[in-house]
Amino acid sequence: MLPQEENxxxxxxLGEDGLARPAWASVDPLLREYYDTxxxxxxxxxxxxFERLSLEAFQSGLSWATILRKRPAxxxxxxxxxxxxxxxxxxxxxxxxxxxxxIVRNLRKIQATITNARAxxxxxxxxxxxxxxxxxxxxVTPAPTTYDEVPTTSPExxxxxxxxxxxxxxxxxxxxxxxxxEAVGVVDTHLVxxxxxxxxxxxxx
Length: 205
Fold this sequence. Notes:
This protein is mainly alpha-helical and about 200 residues long. It has a single domain, classed as Hypothetical protein, domain 2 (Endonuclease III, domain 1). About 45% of the residues lie in helices and about 5% in strands. It is built from 9 helices and 2 strands. Strands 1-2 form a two-stranded antiparallel ribbon. Helix 2 packs antiparallel against helix 6 and helix 2 crosses helix 9.
C-alpha cells in the first residue's frame, strides 16, 4: 500500500525524532504512524490479507491517504472483512454499500470485493490465500536507496496476479499485487537507511 503518487522527493527525510523516513511518510501524522507501525510488517492470516487486498483495489486511482482515513468506515461497512460474511452479500448489501458515504462508493470495486471474498473461501480447499500470496516471495528483495529505485511491479507480482485471476479474483493487476506484497512484508522496499528497513524480520537489514 505504498502511496507512490504522493511522494515528489526520492530521498529520506530526517524527522524531528531523529528517524529517517521517505517523504511520503514524513509529514502527515496518519501516514507516518502507518509507516512506523504497520507498512511492510508480515501479514499471514486470511482475514488480514483479504482486507489489504480489498483496500488495494479500492485505492486504484486514489491516494492511499484517502483509503487509510476511510479504513475504519470500510471495516464497519464490510463486517471487518470477514471473508465468509462478505461472500454472502447480496444485492441489498451492494445497495447499502453504495449509500455509505464513509467508504469509496464505486460499484465495480464493491462488487469485486464480494467476488474476491467468495474466491478466498473457495481457495481454502487449496491451502488458502495466505499460502498462495506468500508462495510468491522472491529470492531477494529490492534495496532501493532513492524513491525512483522502488519498483512498481516484479516478475513475482505478475505471476501472483495471474495466479489469483486463475482462482477467480478480480482487480488484482501486477502493480496492485506488488503494492500488496510491499504492504504485507513479502518484499521489503523500505529505502536503505530508513529506520524501518528490515523491520519485518523476513529480510535482513
